[in-house]
Design brief:
Elements (H helix, E strand, L loop, with lengths): L21 H26 L6 H12 L1 H21 L3 H4 L1 H25 L10 E4 L5 H28 L14 H21 L5 H4 L2 H12 L5 H6 L4 H23 L3 E4 L11 E2 L2 E2 L4 H21 L11 H8 L4
């Protein structure tokens, strides 16, 4: 006999995990935005010569030296809050293990790019690498902590920005799919291997042209063959929103990175002699053509992340079950 009363357990509909109070999202976004504003005010005051004595000067120096890790933590809080508002859940709780894994994975991923730069991309004439760091803290402990936080923020910032753009309407971009034959997939894979080998062969900053797209060509076919979310799979199904969101997410973060980096004390600079006359035209420290690389960097980070989930995917949300959210995650989401 099946009861219909309000206390019957068969009618119990538990609250979906991660729903929480919407006030938590506004709080996250508010804290992040306030933190960014406070950092901007302190750094501007220091750069403007208003903080010249005692603890005020020391506070300005501390903010300037640690500006990159500080400011990107604020940006991530804003993203998490706004995404929570857009998706009607506490985004930070709903994807907490996935975000933690992405945070740690981001450090490893950027160490790979730094390793390529400082080990293989040094100009023989000038002795300079494609990018160099300046004004770093004297303390080794400070440098390590700063590196960890700054590097950890890279992939979450890219993918969460792309996810916000997707939620804003890009997910609706669909059309007839492309026929990407196995031969084209294999060709892309081989081309990716050639680009991947570029830094190891050329030993010059010109390899910078290859490192921001090599792993897209090399790993995306592997993701497709292994049944992971992939750009090839999206394009074959006529789903263009995720690709465009990842490209614009990369460019958005690139514009913010270069803007915030320019005023910081601990910062990076570029040395790209292969751009010749284009080095006269800059967006802050970045030669203008270099911004094109950010359009590829967003998709590349996502492709690398999806490939990594082949190994530890079952440890994070959305990978180990067949719940409806997994289908959305695989077909649409940028996380």
């Amino acid at each position: 006999m099946t009861g219909t009363g309000p206390n019957n357990s068969s009618n119990f509909n538990p609250r979906p995990f991660g729903r929480g109070s919407p006030r938590a999202n506004y709080l996250l976004a508010g804290i992040g935005f306030g933190w960014i504003c406070a950092l901007e005010i302190v750094l501007s005051a220091y750069r403007g010569g208003l903080l010249t004595h005692g603890w005020e000067k020391q506070a300005g120096i501390m903010v300037g030296v640690h500006f990159t890790p500080f400011i990107w933590c604020g940006y991530l809080l804003v993203l998490l809050g706004v995404l929570g508002i857009a998706t009607h859940c506490v985004f930070l709780l709903r994807w907490r293990f996935r975000l933690l894994a992405l945070w740690i994975w981001s450090v490893i991923a950027w160490c790979y790019f730094d390793w390529l730069n400082f080990r293989f991309m040094r100009n023989a004439a000038t002795g300079l690498h494609a990018w160099e760091y300046q004004g770093l803290p004297h303390s080794a402990a400070d440098r390590v902590i700063g590196y960890f936080i700054a590097f950890a923020a890279i992939a979450p910032a890219l993918l969460l920005t792309a996810e916000l753009l997707r939620c804003a309407g890009l997910r609706r971009l669909r059309s007839a799919g492309l026929r990407i034959a196995p031969g084209i997939q294999i060709t892309a894979f081989v081309l990716g291997i050639c680009f991947f080998a570029g830094p190891f062969i050329l030993h010059d900053p010109v390899a910078n042209l290859m490192i921001w797209c090599s792993l897209i060509f090399m790993l995306d076919p592997v993701n497709f063959w292994m049944g992971r979310p992939s750009l090839i799979g999206d394009w074959r199904a006529g789903r263009w929103g995720r690709t465009l969101a990842l490209m614009l997410g990369g460019l958005t973060c690139g514009l913010l990175w270069e803007f915030w980096n320019y005023w910081a004390i601990a910062r990076w600079t570029y040395h790209l002699p292969f751009l010749a006359g284009w080095n006269r035209f800059h967006y802050f420290a970045m030669p203008l053509p270099g911004l094109i690389g950010y359009l590829g960097f967003g998709p590349q980070v996502w492709v690398m992340w999806q490939f990594s989930l082949l190994a530890f995917g079952p440890l994070v949300e959305g990978e180990a079950s067949k719940a409806p959210v997994d289908g959305e995650l695989r077909q649409d989401m940028c996380l």
